Amino acid sequence: MCALFLIRLWNMYQKEAGCDAVEMKKKELILEGLDCANCSLKIENEMNALEGVKAEVNFATKTLTLTYGAHEDEDLMKKAEHIVHRHEPDVVVTEKKKNKTTEEIFLLEGLGCANCAMKMEEEISKLPAVESVSIDFATRKLRVLPRYGALSIEDKNRMSGIIETIEKDTKLILAGTEESQLEGEYQRILRVHGKDLSMIVLSGLLLLAGALMPLNDTVRLLLFLLSYLLVGGEIVLRAVRNLVRGQVFDENFLMAIATIGAFLIGEYAEGVAVMLFYQVGELFQSMAVERSRRSIADLMDIRPEYANLIVDGAAVKVSPDEVKPGDVILVKPGEKVPLDGVVVEGASSLNTSALTGESMPRDVESGSEILSGFINQNGLLKVKVTKEFGASAVSKILELVENASGKKAPTESFISKFARYYTPFVVVSALLLAAVPPLVLGDPFSMWAYRALVFLVISCPCALVVSIPLGFFGGIGGASRRGVLVKGGNYLEALNEVETVVFDKTGTLTEGRFTVTRILPEGDLSESELLEKASYVESFSSHPISLSIVSAYGKELDRGRISSYEEIAGHGIKAALDGKIIFAGNKRLMEKEGVTVPQLSFGGTLVYLSEGGQYIGALVVSDTIKSGAQETIRALKDMGIRKTVMLTGDLKQVGEEIGTALGLDEVYTELLPQDKVSVFERLKKETSGKIVFVGDGINDAPVLAQADIGISMGALGSDAAIEASDVVLMTDEPMRIVTALKVAKRTRSIVWQNIIFALGVKGTFLLLGAFGVASMWEAVFADVGVTVIAVINAMRVMKTEHL
Fold this sequence. Notes:
The chain folds into 6 domains: about 20-95, Alpha-Beta Plaits (2-Layer Sandwich), CATH 3.30.70; about 105-175, Alpha-Beta Plaits (2-Layer Sandwich); about 185-295 and about 405-465 and about 750-795, no CATH class; about 325-385, Calcium-transporting ATPase, cytoplasmic transduction domain A; about 490-510 and about 630-725, Rossmann fold; about 510-625, Calcium-transporting ATPase, cytoplasmic domain N (3-Layer(aba) Sandwich), CATH 3.40.1110. With about 800 residues, the protein is α+β, with helices and mostly antiparallel strands. Strand 24 (about 605-610) and strand 25 form a beta hairpin. One of its GO terms (cellular component) is plasma membrane. Keywords: ATP-binding, Cadmium, Cell membrane, Membrane, Metal-binding, Nucleotide-binding, Translocase, Transmembrane, Transmembrane helix.
């Protein structure tokens, strides 16, 4: 019997010890396509019901983490797939790779051709060492995910070779290692394109000499050829190299064929002039693109260059990266706050507009929390650093904005695909235009060949592939200056399709702080007398409602007047004030003490008071509606939002009163976090357009992740909510939601202006060229000139002052 007891005791110990008694393993599974938070809870519960298995589902990251005994390894994957598919049949279950590689980021210095960027991306993706690659033309960032570990020097050399073959002036450098240039933008362009500019000038002089000077035909032809080789020789070489590599339909090939064709039909001067005009246009296009990039960079010029670290009582200027949490730094008037921290000495006003978009300065003193990127306006501050630079507010914001343009909007993706088919279509049309009419109509071949060459010059889609990414990136940059961080062009475009906006209540539409909203004295007692009695009774409690009552009284309390004090759990407080027994609490407390109270109905918490066994009045304590919340709901409806909804865990009466005051369409009350998910899932099914959820709390993260667009109140919101959201409001002002929608509408408007303008002009010139009205000069304008105009127009999206 004793032996049996010892065996059972040992088995219990093994079960309790778990990891120590049995070899345990850990596996992470990716649940691709998981979009039901409620289902994720069921999956987790069923997996945990399996013997010897501990499971955890992270809905935000779509991962299932399993800890289990080594002997169960074989069947566990099948069991996990079976359980997952029972609840979510379309979810793809894959095992997370253990040897996780880190994305490597490079800068393409000198990149000025969006079409070339697409080709670079395509060619680099074919390298064996590359798992995935993306090039962001707006920021010139090349992001590479290596297939195995990290890229070798040979891999980087191959990438560099591909890039320079496609665009010779583009250099591959590691992001962050580029040298800071003190020169202006135009000086930088002259430095990069000085050689090209010299060739353009010399070629222009030779062209004028050949066209205007009295020369024999042979000398004139030689001048034209020399002029052509100066500006077009490199383009012809690139066209040949690309042709060998199978890249036929690019702007180098089109310009080479068009201008050589002009020579073959005897249009020498026009062939040279078109190539010269094309190169001049390319230079202006480069200047316009670089200027637009500079404008966007200026919008986000919030990165601090140094920090004044206090060492042995003296301030030493160091890089912000060198400062550690716990260090104390000095922030002088006019300087940017380099790192997040708490003021330990001094007082000042801070300009927060670069991060929050707020025009009014924020006053700080000892004990105030401040964020990196704020600008100190007057006082001298000593700040104790709370976060290292990589985790500071300014670093997170810059990372969000810089990575945002990597998530392409559907319009961008469509234009990229359109460009692949558009150019070949025009080339084939040009061949048919050159060959068919002479055969059918009997016209001279040279006439229709010239018209076909005009077709070729017009066909380059640069205006679209350049201006549209810049438009979306400019919209993201402009929104950031208004205190709205959009994590991608896809979310910016999706904001145009919103039909339903769902709000959390506390901290989103309301302040999240209790205040006394009504004072209801009984008999001859005045409001001030009732509030005074309530304040004394509540003065020893730390409950939020008690603190709000004491705060509403606002006068200094003589606690010596309280001779006894007792908190009654779940009911309220009993205290002796000036020798008289006063009870303050809920209705249950009054009933318990035999005090009859009137039937009151107000949105908020009722605090009843009795003195000497008699009811003397009540206070209504409630959460106050945020300033601007009503205007936000009204503005959303004016913008065409069909339904506004609020989800809250508050009592029905409280929630409905706030909903009525705000003019919301629907209010759901008394919800637990899992109930919010269920209600949101139903609302999502009922909505044909996009649905937005706006929240700020840790319990909002599952709903934020499930929404088409999740918006978090970033200033005071939790890290989990910000991580799960797609749009972050840097202040807790609800009107920023309206700002985000307005920026999205303005961005879409300008992007479509460019699409319609570019296609309209090109379509018009294609028709004019086919009928012999447009020459190759006009064709070059339809290509390069339209691109420059579209880029300049795209930059208007950053001007959001009127929003």
